[in-house]
Amino acid sequence: MNFGSIELDQDTLAFWREVRGFFAEHVTDELLDEERANGGGFNEALHLAMGERGWVAPQWSTAEGGAGLDPRRAQIIQHEFYGSGAPYILAGTTLLPPIAIRIFGSPEIQAEILPRVADGTVRICLGYTEPDCGSDLAAVRTRAERDGDDWIINGQKMFTTGAQFSQYCFLLTRTDPTVPAHKGLTVFLLPLDTPGVEIRPIDTLGGERTNFVYLQDVRIDDRWRLGEVNQGWSVVAAPLNAEHGIRPEEETTLVGGPYLAECERLVAAFIEWAHQQTGSAGTLLDEEAVQEKLGEILLAAELTRSADGPPARILSSELLNRTASQLIALVGPTALLERGAEDAASAGAFEAGFRFAPATAIYGGSTDIARNVIAERFLGLPRSTPRRTAK
């Protein structure tokens, strides 16, 4: 593996300084405190400021409202965005449905939605998971029934993170319960201000908010349907692939970026804390065992940064879980004290990181699903579970 440095031209370095300055200006202590208190995963003022520069969708063309940037500059934006500590979840999920909207949406829907996604005024949450189906999307039960030119939708979604800040939900429904599971699904872009939609919060152990979305006799026009009736599995396939880290070569994303950034913030917090602790040879950072452990973590982070796609998804989550535990072991009991508690190490950063880490193995399809993707799509191994067949 080549760990040599990459030489950047002066224009790219100037752009990097511009990006870093932007996030330093907009990601304020007040913004971070708000996110720590409420865990919403989104800040509208920051998102709109990014939209003004085309940075919500930096690789989209300027005609679509993006910045038309090359992959390297888009990666610089992502790197600084994640590294700033700003909430990022809804900004990421919002860019998944447009993949399907471009392919399956009518020209009118594309013209109405895509520019507003790019400028930040439209956000889209994912209406996949239901209480009884977990990661098995083919098992969804939310029903959509045709009524003339309309559809009437009844059901329930959960873990629809960002719904409270979104204008639309990329909604997977069942339109024919009599056919095999994958063949009776239809996708809609549901306006969340439609009567009959109710959003209720779910507060998680990790300090983040997600949501239930209840749908009771929700009536929407057929214009909001994406793709053909009962062909919804084809519609969600491309966004699901992107969520799992499988994207076209011309598109770039730092698949493990958010979790690597969290690792780096925890390491930085530890270094700052350890500088103030007395060890046998000076500060705690002068201890050989501490230096060795930090070296292992940083080397693992660099190796993970070199991964892409599903492997990056797995490695970054596992690294964060491992790092959060190891740093708590190095710090000791005060690392377990939460933010605001007396004597909490680094203002509760280690405790918060330790709570946040386990859920990263579930977000966006679990790491077990990522392993299945690697086995089946890249290694050519047989499916871990057989496909359901019609009786």
In short:
This protein is an alpha+beta fold.
Explain what this protein looks like in three dimensions:
The chain is of the alpha+beta class and 391 residues long. The protein contains 13 helices and ten strands. It has helices spanning 10-26, 29-38, 44-52, 71-83, 89-93, 97-104, 107-118, 232-243, 257-274, 288-305, 309-331, 349-356, 367-378; strands at 124-127, 143-147, 150-158, 168-174, 185-191, 197-203, 209-221, 225-226, 278-279, 282-283. The protein has a four-stranded mixed beta sheet. It has a four-stranded antiparallel beta sheet with strand order 2-3-7-6, with no helix packed on it. A two-stranded antiparallel sheet has the order 9-10. Strand 2 and strand 3 (150-158) form a beta hairpin. Helix 6 (97-104) runs antiparallel to helix 8 (232-243), helix 9 runs parallel beside helix 11 and helix 11 runs antiparallel to helix 13 (367-378).
Mean pLDDT figure: 90
Order of helices and strands: HHHHHHHEEEEEEEEHHEEHHHH
What's the end-to-end separation, in Å? 51 Å
Number of helices: 13
Number of strands: 10
- How many strands, what sense, and barrel or not for the largest sheet? 4 strands, mixed
Rounded to the nearest angstrom, the radius of gyration is 22 Å
Strand share of the residues? Answer: 5-15%
Indicate the low-confidence ranges by residue numbers.
none
- The order of strands across the largest sheet is 1-4-5-8
Any idea what the shape is?
globular
Structural class: alpha+beta
The share of residues in helices is 40-55%
